[in-house]
Amino acid sequence: MASDVIVAVDMMGGDFAPSAITGGVAEALERFGDAYRYLLVGDQEVVRKGLVELGVNAEDSRLEFVHAPEVVGMNEHPVKALREKRNSSIGVAMDMVKAGRAGGVFSAGNTGAAVGASFLKWRMLEGLARPGIATVMPGEKEPWILMDSGATVDCTPSVLAQFAIMGDLYAKQTLKLANPRIGLLSNGTEEGKGNKQVQDAFGLIKNIPGINFIGNVEGHDLFCGKVDVVVCDGFVGNVVLKTSEQLCKSMSNMIKGQVMQKFWWKMGGLLSKGAFKEVKKQTDAGEVGGAPLLGVKGCCVIGHGNFQAHAVANGIRAVGELIREKLNDRIVEVIHQYALDSIG
Amino acid sequence: MASDVIVAVDMMGGDFAPSAITGGVAEALERFGDAYRYLLVGDQEVVRKGLVELGVNAEDSRLEFVHAPEVVGMNEHPVKALREKRNSSIGVAMDMVKAGRAGGVFSAGNTGAAVGASFLKWRMLEGLARPGIATVMPGEKEPWILMDSGATVDCTPSVLAQFAIMGDLYAKQTLKLANPRIGLLSNGTEEGKGNKQVQDAFGLIKNIPGINFIGNVEGHDLFCGKVDVVVCDGFVGNVVLKTSEQLCKSMSNMIKGQVMQKFWWKMGGLLSKGAFKEVKKQTDAGEVGGAPLLGVKGCCVIGHGNFQAHAVANGIRAVGELIREKLNDRIVEVIHQYALDSIG
Questions:
Q1: B130 contacts: CB under 8 Å, gap ≥ 6
Q2: Could you report the per-residue pLDDT of A46-90, keeping only the tens digit for each?
Q3: Whole-Å CA distances, B38 to A318, B22, B55, B244, B264
Q4: Model-level pTM greater than 0.90?
Q5: B74 band by pLDDT with thresholds 50, 70 and 90
Q6: To the nearest whole angstrom, how far is the Cα of B27 from the nearest Cα of chain A?
Q7: Contacts of B165 (CB under 8 A, 6+ apart)
Q8: E strands along B167-321, which residues?
């Protein structure tokens, strides 16, 4: 039976699009069987050709094509590009969800464009003010969620409180935690630490019923298993995300550089290479397949621009899971209950 | 001839005080010859005893003792502690500078207490609104400066502009750069990115004459040699500092953990151990000896709470250099000129 979970895929978004994306679709067809159907949004001719080259039957009943020849480049100004390119693959993919032809979107393209298009075309879920990106981050022991990692740069305290609620629900779904520890990112752990917005958010989050708020957390608490969901505004979250990505890369370069300095170190490096590959795998964003944009009326998972086929397939699965788990319904329920409690 | 550069040392501040601090003084006496004199502020009996145990002659003419038996603990609320403990070592050390008996202070104690005490007792330099901590950070190729790493949590755009000026002057002094590249930390490199305060600061910093402003920088630009001074508020800076410290630790733990998994990996790890020690040394905050608190009327270098003797000695030298280079005089000059230009 044909699946009713339909994922719209932005075929043109990402540093290695369309080839990494067609590759991801090919892998998804193989790995996920009949779990999903795919609405492939992009330059139809290019996409079909790419699939055929990979040995995919373009007439596969799980595939449907939507022509959208324009691309929002990785460095384009998102809102401007969306306005000027009415047939951009990301914009049309969002339209498909609005029209009921797909349940959600995967894109490895321009993050700002995905956030902007979903906000403009889908609008916010009832009761929610601003979207947030929930990124699963690697950790020494367990992964954790950074919420928001870049969708909403200026956040009021109540937006941070909504992020806490959405992060809690997403951690329950994706990290399979019964009672995730929610922390508010600050410059110290004591209550009262933080900038004005964090200080005010503390009071709000403390009073959300049913979440396991462990108070303020600081940079020292990340990566080491002390917190499951780290709540912050999209400015701070984006700085944390990118700084962490770069520091991993720089440390790895420093280690490689040093190991090459002496013969015995080089030998040791060769012998233990497998261990480093394991660590790299554990810290690879592609294993998760991207981060959902939460708070909007629709499911959208945003992949890293540098995603290759395997990561794209994981991203497609992430969209499928969001659709199937009906995360948005639960977000609306909890936010509604919270609003009622706040009034009462 | 006795040196006229006198460093007041907070003997009671830090996780390993007083022993790490007496150890640092002992090392400084040995390493720096007659370059400095030392005003040792703390519980006099304890400090003297500690020095004698290390084989230091407590009657050394370079040493002077000031009794201040109270300690502000690492987790105490700074302002409250300063109010209640009139004879705290950090507070009395600051008093000594105000009274002209020392040129600056080194402390590895409670950062908030050092910031608070200097702000209350010394006040700001003329024309400056808020203090900032300029932390020298390790990099793949070259070190860089994070300004502010935690002194002023809520910053107006003009405070960020002042941080750019102070960071520029400190980079010239300590990194020996003729024309340091100043970047404003944001969530993307394009002009217009950032929260409101960063967007407004961009316009101000762009118009500061004589500094090499390279525009917005993002997390991906740190650690890899693209920028010399990263300007941000103390909230974001503190998050970046602590997140980076923890990520280095967590990555190192992950690598160690993996290397232990297989016999050959373990052998390789043993062979290349020296390379890892080199990387650890390159990323060790103790080599720099702490971070100066800039903007206040006096020189104060704040060490990491976990500093051991060698790092403390480096911190004492860092204070000595600040005093000798008269950094504060240059800050006042440039700020004054900038203010004149802004009016004109």
A1: B124, B151, B152, B155, B159, B162, B295
A2: 999 999 999 999 999 999 999 999 999 888 888 888 889 999 999
A3: 62, 11, 17, 33, 52
A4: yes
A5: confident
A6: 29
A7: B208, B211, B331, B334, B335, B338
A8: 181-185, 212-217, 229-231, 291-294, 299-302
Name every chain A residue with its beta carbon within 8 A of the beta carbon of B234.
187
Within an 8 Å CB–CB cutoff, is residue A343 touching chain B? no
Banded model confidence at residue B162, pLDDT cuts 50, 70, 90:
very high
Write out chain B residues lying below 8 Å of A221, CB-based: 246
Give the whole-angstrom CA distance, residue B13 versus residue A153: 37
Q: Does A244 touch chain B (CB under 8 A)?
A: yes
Task: State how far the Cα of B97 lies from the Cα of A328, in Å rounded to an integer.
Answer: 60
The CA–CA distances, whole Å, from A99 to A121, A229, A322 equal: 11, 33, 18
Report yes or no: A222 at the B interface, CB cutoff 8 Å: yes
Helix (H, G, I), strand (E, B) or coil at A213: strand
CB contact under 8 A, A240 and B244: no
Strand partners, A133: A293
Tell me, yes or no, if A259 comes closer than 8 A to chain B by beta carbon.
Answer: yes
Contact A236, B239 (CB under 8 A): yes
Q: Which residues of A touch B140 (CB under 8 A)?
A: 250, 253-254, 257
* Nearest CA distance, A78 vs chain B (angstrom): 12
The answer on pLDDT for A343 being more than 70 is: no
What is the C-alpha to C-alpha distance for residues A223 and B254, in angstroms, rounded to an integer? 10
Looking at residue A257, what is its pLDDT? 84
Residue found under tokens 């809520």: B154
CB contact under 8 A, A272 and B254: no
Count of beta carbons in the 10 Å neighbourhood of residue B299: 29
Per-residue confidence (pLDDT) for residue A2, from 0 to 100: 81
Residue type, B237: G
A83/chain B closest Cα distance in angstroms: 18
Residues linked to residue A144 through DSSP beta bridges, in sequence order: A137
With 0-12 / 13-18 / 19 or more C-beta atoms within 10 angstroms meaning exposed / middle / buried, residue A196 is exposed
